[in-house]
């Protein structure tokens, strides 16, 4: 295939390297340095998609980030990605792309019927048209909309690419490498400041690549190249292309996405696809330039109608003609520059200028080149369906309201210039209150809120000389302040052609008897008539008009549509534009892939994994692990063909009959030291702590100030001023913060230090009637008899040369001990326990058996202490001291907390003694009561009682203390279960607690 | 992301800190009689102020100290930070 629209020479592409690619199944080729857009235009392809609402044919409108139409589905290295702008996607060998939004094909599009039914799709059509009849929604309207609309398909596969995050600090962050970015970066860098210069495109230089200027006897591009290569050599400068700063957040934090591999056929090994930079900058210089805005006229969305600056860019950067019979429609001098470029390349353009008698150097040049210029002329409507074929043009009166007779001019593209809109997104995101500049008919940044300054065209400065002067100066001033170093640069001689004022004309009136669609928002198909309807229907706030009509709400965020929308609203409302105001600019400036936002925190990398020192033993012994917060804990140890249920029953039963050992390293441990340690415990726990002797442990419950139970655990007095506190695995971090809060802020007079020692100790619970026998073998030199180490006793002992702490505490309800050794000795301890316990039938048990044992014993845990229960609800009221105050005590006398029928923990047994009860089920009185069936309580934890060999659950039940012996129903609509049950005591095993003391 | 100056460690990113509520609330003294209303005010009732506000943050992934931060709730501007034992002026 020949590239019939590619010039013989010219452009910045590498003509030595051909690149083949596929679009909608057809093969084409372009050159290295092309975008998908430039390569397609070179091949004469202008039809790229269908519009969102009316499915009108869509071509190219811009040449970069502002592109509203040319969105494609990209296929790269076995993956697919939606929402790719053809104007941004660089060409690579083997690239494949498809149109979106067209069904069944771009050339024959069923949805285009919407275009002929457009009377039914006015403003707010989402809210109106598909509302009636209601039954049509799911079956007819929604599937139709889903099939016909949308901007591509997201992949449902796991993204195998790697994305990275990077944190960076700098003195100056400069966003954009056009003249203002280069000048400010250069002077700041010369002063020794740490500079990051970010350029969105692959090429540095911005408008210098396309404008006919001269800086210091070099062309714009030569000057840009020399500055960039010098900056790249400086150690204090980071220069990044393909990097877009898309968000300006609080305290000068900006986020930039760097596209590292998107322009390559596939990502290099060990390279990320994209990298997200979090940059904290001392000063920010916004040099994001400006975007040309369109003039609104009939059928202005026809493929072939595009921004004149884009036409120039295709010519000068890519050596591509967007048409061979161009019409340039302009209200300012920029259109002339495009026309001159066409003319230089042997193409005869026609200029329609809305101005009557403009005069400037550029216009003079165009005249001298014999370009056909028609003054006071406008394009009334583009003609042609899939591509512009001609234009209806007319003379326009001086007051811009009356059209002369319509003439038809043959053309294949219409290059539009409605003057320039500063890109103020970042400035506005930073909190800058923007102001309206009458001279340029656009908003510019006003007073800075954060440390940001806006330069050049982004600040409404449209001459090169002024831009460079201002930018050199700002870069110098800001960096000097930071580095205390000044390295003055001599200002280069600048040659540029002078232009004259633009015409504030932006919308061509409709000719009599014609009803052309005149589009404002090209991606969302919002036309002048839609805004008119919205205003007629009473919408006034620009934010409401935006949402009702979807103006500026598409993925291009209204980069080309916002100002014309405002002009229209202000005209109808008879207000000035600044009185209408603009809608809020929000990050991201341009779409960012989800992968980049997530970074490396995917799958197992989303959080750290904590393992106990005995982890490898568990692995070797067929442990099946479960996530307990960030910890990995053995859930059960599989033997043969056992399942979870069978294994946990075996393990629990073995604890009740012989002896078991459980890894309890994950329990939170806090070391508490200081002369006021007892006083702290006395205030934090609900029970009394002042008289606990050295060498004794005590169970305690702590509350939040609102009276809700926060955590429970045992604390042991190691020595006079030294305590060892344990917390539940889940609450360990919160409890430490809680203690620190009271010690640092509320009671700083207490002389106490707290520190987490969770990681320092490995713990093993040895539980069961034979546990003392095991202990005797482990600690032959210590007296571990019932007298030597009584229930809630503590001793330090020698475990074959290793220092160990023995706590006689029990969670299982059996005679039990917890042995702690320093983490490094954890594995050794564990092996010794298994070895010593062998003759007594010791078995390791996991969290499932642990739960079973505590549930049937009626010991509360996280599922009861769930942030909604007070001590009474957990039958812990016996632990509330009447003699002293403690955190949360005052709340316990609140009315609801002392209600007679207050909820309380109970046991639940199914009447058939067979059906297991799903956790989370509700307890009701009458299973047939009409919905909503009044809920009396809920099942907090369920197990298979190994003691009674039937299902048993704990529940938090209204008036629980008076419900023992009553028959209720458990209902689980989720599992579709109704189970008749009996309410029993929560202490289903050993209610008197004799075993732990035996 | 906010940039908070820990009086102990210096400027750090917000993700090292955890928020701890209104710094001007004083816990009633232990053991002292207090009306339901006053207790409710201490436990539950907070003003949702727009503007300058003293609040508590803990430098959780740093020095673990609780600090006092004066921040504008509307603009996120931080004016001042204090150590736990320094009085709000
Ligand atoms: Zn700190």
Can you walk me through this structure?
The complex is a heterodimer of chains A (998) and B (89). Chain A is an alpha+beta fold and 998 residues long. In chain A, strands 8, 9, 12, 13, 14, 15 and 28 form a seven-stranded mixed sheet that branches. Chain A has a six-stranded mixed sheet with strand order 41-42-43-40-34-44. The longest helix of chain A has 20 residues, at 464-483. The radius of gyration of chain A is 38 Å and the shape is elongated. The termini of chain A are far apart. The mean pLDDT of chain A is 94. Chain B is mainly beta. Chain B has a domain at 1-23 and 50-84: Folate-binding superfamily (Folate-binding fold, 2-Layer Sandwich), CATH 3.30.2270.10. Chain B is built from one helix and six strands. In chain B, the strands form two sheets. In chain B, strands 3-4-5-6 form a four-stranded antiparallel sheet, with no helix packed on it. Chain B has a two-stranded antiparallel sheet with strand order 1-2. In chain B, a hairpin with a 3-residue loop joins strand 1 (3-6) and strand 2. The radius of gyration of chain B is 14 Å and the shape is globular. Chain A binds chain B through residues 167, 249-253, 278, 280, 431, 449, 683, 705-706, 737, 740-741, 744-746, 748, 884-886, 890-891, 894, and chain B through 1-3, 13, 18, 20, 27-28, 30-31, 34, 36, 39, 42-44, 56, 58, 60, 64-66, 75-76, 78, 84-85. The complex binds zinc ion. The site of zinc ion (ZN) has 7 residues of chain B, from loops.
């Amino acid at each position: 295939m020949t590239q019939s629209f590619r010039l013989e020479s010219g452009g910045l592409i590498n003509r030595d390297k051909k690149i083949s690619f596929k679009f909608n199944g057809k093969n084409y080729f372009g050159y290295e340095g092309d975008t998908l857009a430039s390569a397609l235009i070179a091949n004469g392809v202008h039809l790229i998609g269908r519009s969102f609402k009316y499915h009108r044919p869509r071509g190219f409108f811009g040449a970069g980030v502002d592109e509203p139409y040319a969105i494609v589905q990209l296929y790269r290295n076995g993956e697919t990605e939606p929402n790719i702008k053809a104007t941004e996607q660089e060409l690579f060998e083997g690239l494949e792309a498809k149109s979106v939004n067209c069904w069944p094909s771009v050339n024959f599009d069923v949805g285009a019927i919407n275009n002929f039914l457009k009377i039914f799709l006015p403003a707010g059509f989402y809210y109106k048209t598909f509302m009636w009849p209601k039954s049509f929604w799911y079956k007819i309207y929604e599937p139709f909309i889903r099939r016909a609309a949308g901007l591509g398909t997201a992949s449902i596969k796991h993204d195998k690419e790697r994305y990275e995050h990077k944190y960076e600090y700098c003195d100056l962050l400069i966003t954009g490498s056009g003249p203002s970015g280069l000048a400010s970066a250069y002077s700041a860098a010369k002063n020794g400041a740490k500079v990051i210069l970010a350029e969105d495109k692959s090429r540095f230089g911005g408008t210098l690549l396309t404008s006919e200027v001269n800086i210091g006897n070099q062309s714009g591009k030569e000057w840009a190249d020399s500055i960039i290569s010098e900056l790249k050599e400086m150690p204090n400068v980071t220069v990044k292309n393909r990097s877009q700063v898309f968000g300006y957040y609080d305290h000068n934090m900006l986020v930039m996405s760097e596209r590292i591999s998107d322009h390559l056929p596939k990502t290099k090994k060990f390279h990320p696809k994209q990298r997200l930079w979090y940059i904290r900058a001392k000063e920010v210089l916004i040099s994001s330039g400006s975007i040309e805005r369109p003039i609104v006229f009939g059928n202005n969305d026809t493929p072939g109608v595009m921004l004149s600056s884009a036409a120039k860019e295709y010519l000068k950067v890519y050596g591509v003609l967007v048409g061979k019979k161009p019409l340039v429609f302009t209200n300012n001098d920029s259109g002339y520059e495009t026309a001159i470029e066409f003319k230089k390349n042997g193409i005869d353009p026609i200029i329609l200028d809305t101005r009557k008698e403009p005069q400037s150097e550029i216009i003079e040049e165009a005249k001298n080149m014999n370009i056909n210029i028609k003054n006071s002329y406008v394009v009334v409507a583009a003609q042609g369906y899939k591509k512009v074929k001609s234009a209806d043009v007319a003379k326009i009166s001086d007051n811009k309201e009356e059209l002369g007779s319509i003439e038809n001019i043959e053309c294949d593209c219409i290059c539009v210039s409605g003057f320039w809109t500063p890109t103020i997104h970042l400035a506005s995101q930073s909190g800058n209150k923007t102001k309206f500049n009458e001279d340029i008919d656009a908003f510019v940044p006003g007073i800075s809120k954060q440390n940001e300054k806006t330069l050049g065209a982004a600040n409404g400065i449209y001459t090169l000389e002024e831009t460079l002067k201002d930018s050199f100066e700002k870069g110098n001033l800001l960096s000097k302040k930071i580095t205390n170093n000044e390295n003055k640069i001599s200002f280069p001689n600048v040659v540029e052609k002078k232009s004259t004022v633009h015409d504030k004309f932006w919308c061509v009136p409709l000719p009599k008897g014609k009803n052309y669609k005149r589009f404002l928002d090209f991606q969302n198909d919002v036309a002048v008539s839609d805004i008119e309807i919205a205003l007629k229907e009473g919408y006034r706030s620009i934010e409401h008009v935006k949402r009702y009509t979807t103006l500026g709400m598409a993925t291009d965020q209204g980069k080309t549509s916002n100002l014309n929308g405002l002009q229209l609203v202000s005209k109808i409302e008879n207000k000035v534009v600044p009185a209408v105001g603009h809608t809020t600019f929000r990050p991201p400036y341009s779409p960012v892939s989800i992968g980049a936002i997530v970074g490396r925190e995917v799958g197992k990398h989303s959080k750290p994994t904590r393992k106990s020192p005995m982890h490898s033993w568990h692995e070797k012994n067929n442990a099946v692990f479960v996530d307990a917060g960030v910890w990995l804990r053995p859930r059960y140890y599989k033997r043969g063909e056992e399942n979870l249920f069978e294994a946990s029953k075996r393990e629990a039963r073995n604890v009740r009959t012989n002896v078991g050992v459980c890894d309890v390293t994950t329990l939170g441990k806090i070391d508490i030291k200081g002369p006021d340690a007892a006083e702290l415990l006395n205030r934090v726990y609900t029970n009394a702590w002042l008289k606990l002797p050295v060498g004794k442990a005590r169970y305690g419950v702590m509350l939040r100030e609102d009276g809700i139970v926060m955590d429970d655990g045992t604390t042991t007095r190691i020595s006079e001023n030294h305590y060892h506190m344990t917390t539940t695995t889940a609450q360990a971090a919160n409890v430490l913060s809680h203690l620190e809060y009271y010690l640092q802020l509320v009671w700083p007079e207490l002389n106490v230090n707290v520190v987490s020692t969770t990681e320092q100790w490995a713990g093993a619970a040895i539980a069961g009637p034979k546990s003392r026998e095991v202990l005797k073998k482990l600690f032959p030199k210590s007296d571990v008899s019932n007298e030597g180490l009584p229930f809630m006793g503590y001793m330090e002992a020698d475990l074959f040369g290793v220092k160990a702490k023995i706590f006689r505490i029990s969670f299982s309800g059996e005679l039990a001990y917890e042995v702690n050794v320093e983490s490094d000795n954890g594995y050794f301890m564990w092996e010794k326990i298994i070895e010593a316990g062998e003759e007594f039938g010791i078995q390791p048990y996991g969290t499932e058996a642990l739960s079973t044992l505590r549930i049937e014993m009626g010991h509360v845990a996280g599922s009861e202490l769930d942030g909604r229960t007070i001590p009474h609800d957990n039958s812990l009221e016996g632990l509330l001291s009447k003699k002293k105050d403690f955190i949360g005590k005052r709340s316990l006398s609140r009315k609801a907390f002392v209600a007679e029928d207050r909820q309380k923990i109970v046991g639940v047994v199914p009447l058939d003694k067979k059906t297991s009860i799903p956790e989370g089920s509700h307890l009701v009185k009458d299973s047939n009561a009409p919905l909503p069936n009044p809920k009396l309580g809920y099942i907090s934890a369920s197990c298979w009682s190994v003691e009674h060999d039937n299902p048993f659950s704990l529940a938090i039940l209204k008036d629980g203390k008076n419900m023992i012996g009553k028959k209720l129903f458990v209902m689980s609509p989720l599992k579709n279960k109704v189970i008749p049950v009996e309410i029993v005591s929560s202490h289903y095993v050993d209610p008197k607690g004799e075993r732990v003391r035996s | 992301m906010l940039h908070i100056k820990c009086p102990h460690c210096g400027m750090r990113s917000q993700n090292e800190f955890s928020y701890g509520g209104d710094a001007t609330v004083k816990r009633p003294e232990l053991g002292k009689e207090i009306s339901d209303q006053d207790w409710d005010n201490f436990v539950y009732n907070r003003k949702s102020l727009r503007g300058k506000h003293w609040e508590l943050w803990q430098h959780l992934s740093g020095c673990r100290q609780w600090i006092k931060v004066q921040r504008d709730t509307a603009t996120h501007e931080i004016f001042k930070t204090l150590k736990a034992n320094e009085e709000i002026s």
